Amino acid sequence: MADTGRKKSGDGTAGKKKMSGLKEMSGNANAALETPDIKGAEAKSVCKATQKMIRRAEELQISTVFGRAESMKPCPIGAEGSCCKNCAMGPCRVPPSKKEGEPAKVGLCGASAETIAARNFARMVAAGSAAHSDHGRGVAEVFLLAAKGEIPGYGVKDVQKLLQVALDFGLDVEHMGIKELAVKVGEMALAEFGRQEGELLFARMAPLKRQELWRKLNLMPRGIDREVVELMHRTHMGVDQDYKNLTAQAARAALSDGWGGSMIATELQDIMFGTPVPIKGSINLGVLKEDEVNIIVHGHEPLLSEMIVVAAQDPEMTKLAREKGAQGINLAGMCCTANEILMRHGIPIAGNFLQQELAIVTGVLDAMVVDVQCEMQSMHSIAKCFHTELITTSPKAKIEGARHMQFDEHDPINTAKKIVAAAIENFPRRTGEAFIPSDTNDMVVGFSHETINYLLGGTFRSSYRPLNDNIIGGRIRGIAGVVGCNNARTVHDSDHLVLIKELLKNDVIVLTTGCSAMACGKAGLLVPEAAAKYCGSGLAEVCEAVGLPPVLHMGSCVDNSRILMAATAVVKEGGLGDDISDLPAAGAAPEWMSEKAISIGHYFVASGVYTVFGTTFPTTGSRIYTEYLFKGLEEEWGGMWDFVADPLEMARKMIAHIDKKRKALGIDKARERVLYDMAMRRELESA
Ligand code: BF8
Known about the structure:
With 687 residues, the protein is α/β, with parallel strands linked by helices. The protein is 46% helix and 10% strand. β5, α12 (335-345) and β6 (349-351) form a beta-alpha-beta unit. α5 (159-168) packs antiparallel against α9, α10 (302-312) crosses α12 (335-345) and α18 packs parallel to α25 (647-665). The longest helix is centred in the first third of the chain and has 35 residues, at 113-147. The relative contact order is 0.13. Bound molecules: FE(4)-NI(1)-S(5) CLUSTER with Oxygen (BF8). FE(4)-NI(1)-S(5) CLUSTER with Oxygen is lined by residues 300, 335-336, 353, 374, 484-485, 514-515, 556-557, 594, 596-597.
């Protein structure tokens, strides 16, 4: 068994310090990170299955991220963005001065705290944008091969969406066949990565006013690779040393993610594998089955997992599984790969980011199949304690000691069958006791922006009109996008749920993706019945009339592009201003941890959205720079960052922002529906 490295556990009652915004920054803005004083499974997660598995791992003396979060404190100087290691004269540490009047520290080269914080922040954006965009590139490459007919089993599943994207790209859809269009769309999408001049094609989908602002401020992204490379250049020692200029280029790189790489991933995946429509699913570790071959696909790219879905249902594979003594093959997902195959096929989800190690601890996982991103290296040492085969599939993401079965993009079904067969072969090697928590929850998912449009539909055509009217009329107070990760420095799933329930209570409809969506699924928020239980009367009335859950699962993290499209559709529908920044809307990532989240946050801010992050914020070492992100940007871009660790306070600030926007639109006085009684009617008639 792996060494635990764990301190003795306590009573599990001590809470974490919570703080928010700029006010508390003068103390220690990352104090929330410095209180490793919570013990006990209940204080580490609000998810019952996770609590049970944390206890199980402790019993077996297996080290997990939850234990390591207690025994290893984050570096406070790094956490607040005050450490510069961009050259070998450093690392230089420039924490904020403790004493009044003390001169501000600078790096050996003279770099100010603002420059250092901005450079560190910008590099996070560059890495996050690169991750999403390289996913998008991988999709575009496979899409092009599929369009040319070179991949058995892959082709155009959603012709309607192909036509829409072709129109968005300015193609002559009337005079081109489907195959020709698909090839052209694939080529044009791929060319977006290496584009040197001009503007990203999808960025022209944004509201016109936003596009004009991007042009005026030089934020309009050119090519995806170009923006990331330029950002890395500018953050090199001795290049861009103006924090505002760095933040602007970070925006260009982030926008090339949201309106570029991520949007390409979403749109082309939809064309190839189908645009999601509402579908039922189930979630949590209880979806694993003791008597079946359990395979989890984990990561982000659905390119291979789409075929693993097919292979796992192949009668030949089922026969092989039975020969090995299993009752069948049980496929489940984890992290964003899970969201992809859930949205399109209803494949159950085993859990979100912080549950990946725990899935192995159940002792019944026959193969953990990973592609790229958010995969913990610790899975390998935990897998060694059981029979689980950890299988890597991407040449970009190998894990030392794991078995590598590379995805052959020319023949995905063959790779998929080999992987499923490997899991089946592994089934008889199970040792020890199975320990599967019984917890699962039902959910309804699959809310692409096209689906929302259709479901809300006017009487004669699909339209966002009913949504806009309900916002204008005040039944829906506003829209919130709550997205992002889990972070072991806060209580697993808790901040997502506290925030979202508070928003619902205040009639704010919630759009969600990523691990946040999974937290909602586990807590029963993704079913229509949640409307009556959690929403204010206005939102509940709308959800009940349409049959929608009050929290709409829109997919994986690259699918945050769907939120951008939905926001744009609301603007274009009319009556709520002429830019995304006019909407009564806000965004949040209360438990973020990845660099991808910072890129997402920055493209939302640059698209005009007030965006709040929780747990910690990576620039607080520089008050000036953080003030610029939190306040200065609103004047320039109409959207700005914020940091609030307490989820209730986060909800309060988001609602205050929504109300501010309602006031600016002149819709702040909610028009309550007046039900006339007979006396009132008579009075009206005689008037
Ligand atoms: O892309 S929400 S922990 S799984 S980074 Fe990772 Fe964060 Fe989860 Fe999906 Ni997104």
